[in-house]
Amino acid sequence: MAHRHTGRPEIRYRYDSDGRVTEQLNPAGLSYTYQYEKDHITITDSLDRREVLHTQGEAGLKRVVKKEHADGSVTQSQFDAVGRLRAQTDAAGRTTEYSPDVVTGLITRITTPDGRASAFYYNHHSQLTSATGPDGLEIRREYDESGRLIQETAPDGDITRYRYDNPHSDLPCATDDATGSRKTMTWSRYGQLLSFTDCSGYQTRYDHDRFGQMTAVHREEGLSQYRAYDSRGQLIAVKDTQGHETRYEYNAAGDLTTVIAPDGSRNGTQYDAWGKAICTTQGGLTRSMEYDAAGRVIRLTSENGSHTTFRYDVLDRLIQETGFDGRTQRYHHDLTGKLIRSEDEGLVTHWYYDEADRLTHRTVNGETAEQWQYDERGWLTDISHISEGHRVTVHYGYDEKGRLTGERQTVHHPQTEALLWQHETRHAYNAQGLANRCIPDSLPAVEWLAYGSGYLAGMKLGDTPLVDFTRDRLHRETLRSFGRYELTTAYTPAGQLQSQHLNSLQYDRDYTWNDNGELIRISSPRQTRSYSYSTTGRLTGVHTTAANLDIRIPYATDPAGNRLPDPELHPDSTLSMWPDNRIARDAHYLYRYDRYGRLTEKTDLIPEGVIRTDDERTHRYHYDSQHRLVHYTRTQYEEPLVESRYLYDPLGRRVAKRVWRRERDLTGWMSLSRKPQVTWYGWDGDRLTTIQNDRSRIQTIYQPGSFTPLIRVETATGEQAKTQRRSLADTLQQSGGEDGGSVVFPPVLVQMLDRLESEILADRVSEESRRWLASCGLTVEQMQNQMDPVYTPARKIHLYHCDHRGLPLALISTEGATAWCAEYDEWGNLLNEENPHQLQQLIRLPGQQYDEESGLYYNRHRYYDPLQGRYITQDPIGLKGGWNFYQYPLNPISNIDPLGLETLKCIKPLHSMGGTGERSGPDIWGNPFYHQYLCVPDGKGDYTCGGQDQRGESKGDGLWGPGKASNDTKEAAGRCDLVETDNSCVENCLKGKFKEVRPRYSVLPDIFTPINLGLFKNCQDWSNDSLETCKMKCSGNNIGRFIRFVFTGVM
């Protein structure tokens, strides 16, 4: 007996006399044999891997109670008399217990091996009414008499209400979110969404064909998108308002083989017989993948012809990776699959966990690295490590709803443990649950003013309004006001950025796009820049014209994206590629790398026969065990010119640098200064917000959800010192004893006093605090009199005027005057600067800070060399960040947000299980059965979405079979959550992810497959990892990524 799907090979089966399958034969994959005994089944695959399933019970009550895995490990399950799961024991002997309801069988309690429990409660219709997680947070749900969800309370207290106008329909006609904003929907009689009206009354309409497929989306501002399908229901064309059409072609099996752009260029993918992508071609450049019989990727071949290879254990876990440059990394796991040891060219890392599988610490070559601490609820509270001898700690605070309320970084002296640096940022939430207030270290509160469901309308610093935003019917920014500064933004009919005009003509810009959506021209009063691209979308040239200027700058790269000498400027060069992606020389320097692929030396290249004495310099770079740059030197003829050292916190964020420069001493001898120039850095999550040296403190306020700077606040160090004051708790402790001496308060009292002090300073004393004081016989006024006076220092405030990428072009004062301005090339190199007030403006491309001593840009997780347009070390997330580990986006001007909208994470029921709302089965928090995917603006008035799905074409595919791109739309989602606002780089990066070949599908989440290089993913992991990868690539975002990859071992 056999079966096959269209375009796929035939799968054959053999059966015994009892009708049981004994053999499954796959001509291009794994084949299986099945041996049956009374109480067990032995399954052997064609790689001679064996699993044994032990069973108990008869007929419909037969259950698998023990499983012997191919590596010899054993997992067990226990069931009650009616076949309901009661406990599962993993390979390490740890047991998870399940408590089902006696009558309904619904799970009412889950207790994990560490004793932490989750509880679930239901109504008489078996609908979940509340669930409490191990951390004590609760969700609640209410239903009407028809069983429809009418109200949901999230763990943070946010309430969403659902309204219905048809007593016979489960589809809501309106939802009210926690802010009180209402969104309305209309539906066809077949359950298709016809219109969606947002909280501002702006409507989006949808057209469908007779098969229920969405054929058109009509948005406000005249933006529409049209879609066409073939007879198999496959999307074959998408057309925007301006008639630009993208077409799609498929093979007989339904695999997407070709994407045809509006200009006719084609990107193709070839597949093997089982639908696994074996090569992708874009603009004539090809990448290929090879698989073993188990369908595991064993070899990647880059555009340069270089190879990366992989090895696995019998449980399909990655145990070795050898990169394109020969760098080899190995991984070891415990019985439950957790990473416990990794080896990287001499660096040996051990990983340690607690009973809840939370990482507690790790060691590198025997020395303790990071340490993690958690509170009784399981929330991360502290991370610490040693950096260059200094203990550096990050502390997190939360409110009772589990929301982050503060982050504090501290640096202590290596010998005395004295506190050298401390920086704290606090966060506050309004009654609707929006994080609308941030209290930066030593600054008044920053308050974000919003309308509707959180669209930005303005910003205040303390009680002073600073910035106002005006938006159109698509909530795109059209006007930004800051004092006398006014920036007007307009969009093309297709929704792309068309112009940005100031009331000062100096910074006006007009944008021109080609049919493929590539930016081809930026025009300003001073000059015009025109851009050319390769068929792969790489920037190949810039043509700059002005009154007395006409310059063409070409950019040449090898197939893998490494910079090459331009043939027009260097006609004698025979170099065609760098196979290992390590550039050894260019027109200016010679480069050397260590075995980890880190740049260790850069020396001026002196052409043969040329004698120069003033610039023959050598730059040397030294790193710690986490591949972070910790020591830099620049020498000339072995004489030091500059030296610098860097400190990092456990999350890899730089917290300090010390720089020694060459100077003349009292004897006239030139040598490095004895005392370094010290700079301290403070962070809010992944955004660098504070830079402090002996002269000033510069603080940056960013646009919400992005890395584009908005406001710059500078305070002289002398003024900053005057703001130092004792806290209320310290004041009372120093004189609170009965004899007038000091006393030590318990931590809970200190916390209450700190909260009271912050409320008094904000003039927002809560009723809870007033009642507490009254119970002590005290008043707010009495406590206020005990507080040290608050000194308000003189501050310089400027607005960042940035380009479309977030690169600062000017600093504008509240009077509308330009205090600083600069011009850059496309890779962030400074071309010209006007700085009459000697302001220190170090921000470059989003997430980058200029280091004057080295010429590099610190980019959160690595250092970027703008002269090369690439990083000096490899990407710490490996292949997840792209096949070229050094690469910066090869189209650095394309990171544009044409709609100014957002990135959404959406969920809906699994298509294989069905359901309505958000999940298959109970629509509740904690139910893992849902499909998750991402949606971003497509630049043409709608959203484009991407996700991971099972190929599911044959029984042989299995739960760990080949994956494919899921077919998703924003409109089909049960719920979409905003996860990133106004971040064009992230959106463009995700669009690239949507086009990539999907990894093999894994039914288990990442935590069970800790070595994760994108080779096995379910839909939830794929979307989460894609989002975090893009956030990190664009801005160095790594707070969550760091912890995630500590667990997965890809460092």
TrEMBL record:
Keywords: Repeat. Coiled coil: none annotated. Residues 797-834 form the RHS protein conserved region domain. Residues 946-966 are annotated as: Disordered. InterPro entries: RHS, Rhs_assc_core, RHS_repeat, T6SS_VgrG/RHS, TEN-like_YD-shell, YD. Belongs to the RHS family. Pfam families: RHS, RHS_repeat, TEN_YD-shell. This is RHS repeat protein. The keyword Repeat applies. NCBIfam families: Rhs_assc_core, YD_repeat_2x. Residues 481-659 form the Teneurin-like YD-shell domain. It comes from Escherichia coli O8.
